[in-house]
């Protein structure tokens, strides 16, 4: 869709709580090689990220960076803008909404901290948890306890009411986990489902590099999706078709599961797709491609994904550039119906706010939000 004006966003983070840190010249093995390839293939230049935030200049409604691509995308509000709520992180991931506390929690993996944005006044608390085990994905269970995937410690951890922690998973089949990435909870049986692609064990920047397996893209074992039983705590492998399973979510009716595959970061045969499975009790069946991330001949990564009350899948998108990076929205049949364009790579998304009608988006260095005319299908 052609642009009709110079786009500006409302920036509520003009004065971050701490000075912004310069990204060090480190090899982010999992993505930078791929992003360079994509840039060469698409002709992307540094100007692709040149859009500026200016809190003194209002957005002309309707926000031109909320793009309707299909009439089924009826969730755009004509009088709301994309907002940047915070900036200053190195690589932001894992947003999770706490409905009781009315706050959003998210991770800054390289800085080894979790941050908290409070709905009441927009206050951001840095080092809500520090150190945080280089945590990536976060969620809350149906008892309100936080669950985190720790890259650095290669485990899934739960924070208890008494201030202690419980290790829910750190090994499978007698071997350490690679580095758990994203996690969700099923409301009916309390089971916990998580992915283990292993990025945090491939570099010191986001965890602890596994030196004894140098040269291998599988730190300890085949990348996979796991389930933790809500009663016994037993861990089972439920799928391993994705090359590197990343973000995951249930459908609105819990009959399907969606899993983002970022395996193209390390495997030539991998494709930038979102997988779909049928949920059959404690198992996943019928693996198939739900959506391809290719748009106008350019293909980037889907990382974090969430489902709304109508069954649409809202996926982060990145590593291509201007006009692609942000959020892509897919109808239940896998057709791309909408887009939210951001000036940064989008890593993860979640629904939150008092009515669960606000989409929170973690960019590489910032936290964004926009109100939409739908609600998240799940508690976070």
3D architecture notes:
The protein has 380 residues and is mainly β. The protein has one domain (10-371): TolB, C-terminal domain (Neuraminidase). Helices cover 3% and strands 39% of the residues. The protein is built from 1 helix and 30 strands. It has one helix spanning 32-42, and strands spanning 10-11, 66-68, 83-87, 92-98, 103-108, 113-118, 124-129, 135-140, 146-150, 155-159, 165-169, 171-172, 175-176, 183-185, 192-196, 224-228, 235-239, 245-250, 256-261, 273-280, 283-292, 294-295, 298-299, 305-307, 313-317, 326-330, 336-341, 346-352, 358-363, 366-371. The strands form 8 sheets. A 5-stranded mixed sheet has the order 1-3-30-29-28, with no helix packed on it. A 5-stranded antiparallel sheet has the order 2-27-26-25-24, with no helix packed on it. It has a 4-stranded antiparallel sheet with strand order 4-5-6-7, with no helix packed on it. A hairpin with a 4-residue loop joins strand 9 (146-150) and strand 10 (155-159). It is globular, with a radius of gyration of 19 Å. The two termini are 31 Å apart. Mean pLDDT is 89; it is low at 1-8 and 15-51.
């Amino acid at each position: 869709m052609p642009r009709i004006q110079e786009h500006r966003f409302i920036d509520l983070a003009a004065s971050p709580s701490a000075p912004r840190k310069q990204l060090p010249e480190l090899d982010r093995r999992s993505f930078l090689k791929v992003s360079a390839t994509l840039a060469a293939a698409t002709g992307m230049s540094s100007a692709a990220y040149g859009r500026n935030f200016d809190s003194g200049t209002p957005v002309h409604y309707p926000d031109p960076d909320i793009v309707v691509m299909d009439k089924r995308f009826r969730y755009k509000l004509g009088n709301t803008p994309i907002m940047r709520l915070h900036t200053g992180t190195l690589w932001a991931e894992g947003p999770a909404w706490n409905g009781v506390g009315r706050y959003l929690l998210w991770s800054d993996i390289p800085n080894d901290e979790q941050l908290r944005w409070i709905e009441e006044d927009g206050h951001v608390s840095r080092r809500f948890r520090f150190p945080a085990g280089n945590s990536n994905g976060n969620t809350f269970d149906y008892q309100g306890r936080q669950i985190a995937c720790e890259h650095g410690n290669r485990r899934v951890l739960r924070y208890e009411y008494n201030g202690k922690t419980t290790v829910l998973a750190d090994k499978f089949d007698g071997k350490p986990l690679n580095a758990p990435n994203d996690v969700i909870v099923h409301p009916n049986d309390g089971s916990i489902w998580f992915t283990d692609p292993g990025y945090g064990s491939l570099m010191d920047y986001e965890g602890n590099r596994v030196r004894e397996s140098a040269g291998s893209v599988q730190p300890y074992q085949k990348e996979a999706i796991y389930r933790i039983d809500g009663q016994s705590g037993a861990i089972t492998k439920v799928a391993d078709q994705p090359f590197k399973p990343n973000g995951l979510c249930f459908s609105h009716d819990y009959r399907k599961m969606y899993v983002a595959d970022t395996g193209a970061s390390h495997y030539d045969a991998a494709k930038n797709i979102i997988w779909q499975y049928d949920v059959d009790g404690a198992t996943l069946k019928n693996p198939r491609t739900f959506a391809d991330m290719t748009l106008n001949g350019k293909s980037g990564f889907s990382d974090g994904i969430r489902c709304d009350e109508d069954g649409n899948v809202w996926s982060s998108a990145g590593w291509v550039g201007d006009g692609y990076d942000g959020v892509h929205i897919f109808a239940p049949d896998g057709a791309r119906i909408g887009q939210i364009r951001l000036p940064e790579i989008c890593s993860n998304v979640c629904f939150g706010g008092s009515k669960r009608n606000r989409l929170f988006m973690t960019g590489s260095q910032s936290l964004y939000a926009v109100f939409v005319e739908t609600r998240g299908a799940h508690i976070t």
